[in-house]
Design goal:
seven-stranded parallel beta sheet, alpha/beta, 257 residues, globular, binds ligand BJW, SIR2/SIRT2 'Small Domain', Rossmann fold, 10 helices, single chain
């Protein structure tokens, strides 16, 4: 593995040409410069609750009001945040590469979409979508706060004589990621590519299956890059590790300043 600092003129650049395919993976660190708290940075706590208490099916079953308060606060915060140069650099790279680019994000804050990314797989869901905790109706756009007042209930279930709560469209601990999302990522990596780059940014490499994508990409012949503000759990599995903030590093690294 090569490790680089980012100061000075010697910032590395990924050569992107007509033969290059890029799979990008982002995590909470990419939104840190937009003012959104990371997970492990906050010691995994929210108002004194462990993240698993508010981001797990067990947590929702035990205290749905607490969970909706957590996600309503997150909705409010994310709605006020703005995409930063890291988000915009990835959107600019997509514009250049078209179908030779795919962004898999663990972030649920919508900032990649708002920066213009469209070839986007939201591996852990989206804060601004809601679904039923019981039936398989389509998740729908929802920007409301349920921090106070009655919890939202599924009207379709009610028509069938069942009571079922709505829940955030988020992949919680212990839940399966959407197989269609994983298929899209796998299919992208399986495509014939003369030059394949896997670029991860702002992720601690702790949470699976996202943490294992670097290994899958390497098996498919990718050159792998990590941009992170500190060494990640899986840094050693990347060919190149750049220590720095994604909003400062990505525009230059991708040549889209
Ligand atoms: C910057 C920066 C700047 C800061 N610039 N960098 C295999 C082995 C062991 C366990 C498992 C396994 N497979 C599955 C599991 C269980 C579990 C898991 O991974 N647990 C681990 C904690 C051990 N995985 C799951 O349950 C997943 N489901 C699944 O695999 O189903 C099948 C299965 C289940 C059980 C057993 C086996 C199989 C689902 C995972 C869902 C994750 N959900 C969460 C919360 C919900 C989303 C929400 O509410 O927002 O998603 S957890 C939380 O972590 C969130 C994040 O998306 C996710 C990843 O965190 P991320 O993005 O990496 O953030 P941080 O905070 O950890 O790191 C930020 C980094 O940025 C830091 O390093 C900073 O330094 C850096 N940084 N500023 C660049 N400016």
């Amino acid at each position: 593995m090569s490790q680089c600092a980012t100061q000075g003129d010697s910032q590395p650049r990924i050569a992107v040409d007509d033969r290059t395919h890029v799979l990008a993976l982002t995590g909470a660190g990419v939104s840190a410069e937009s003012g959104i708290a990371t997970f492990r940075g906050a010691k995994g706590l929210w108002e004194g609750h462990r993240i698993e208490e508010v981001a797990s099916p067990e947590g929702f079953a035990a205290d749905p009001q607490l969970v909706w308060r957590f996600y309503s606060a997150r909705r409010e915060k994310a709605a006020l945040a703005q995409p930063n140069p890291g988000h915009r650099a990835l959107a600019a790279l997509e514009e250049r590469l078209g179908d030779r680019f795919l962004l898999a994000s663990q972030n649920v804050d919508d900032l990649h979409g708002r920066a213009g990314s469209t070839r986007l797989v939201e591996l852990h869901g989206n804060l601004f979508r809601t679904r039923c905790s019981e039936c398989d109706r389509e998740p729908f756009r929802d920007e409301k706060s349920y921090a106070a007042g009655p919890l939202p209930q599924c009207d379709l279930c009610l028509k069938q004589g069942r009571r079922a709560l709505f829940r955030p469209h988020i992949v919680w601990f212990g839940e399966m990621l959407d197989p269609e999302d994983l298929r899209r990522v796998d299919e992208f990596l399986a495509r014939p590519a003369e030059r394949l780059i896997f670029l991860a940014a702002g992720t601690s490499g702790v949470v699976w299956p996202a943490a294992g994508l670097v290994d899958l990409a390497r098996r498919r012949g990718a050159q792998t890059w990590l941009v992170n503000a500190e060494p990640a759990e899986n840094s050693s599995r990347f060919h190149h590790f750049i220590l720095g903030k994604s909003g400062e590093v990505l525009p230059g690294l991708l040549g889209v300043e």
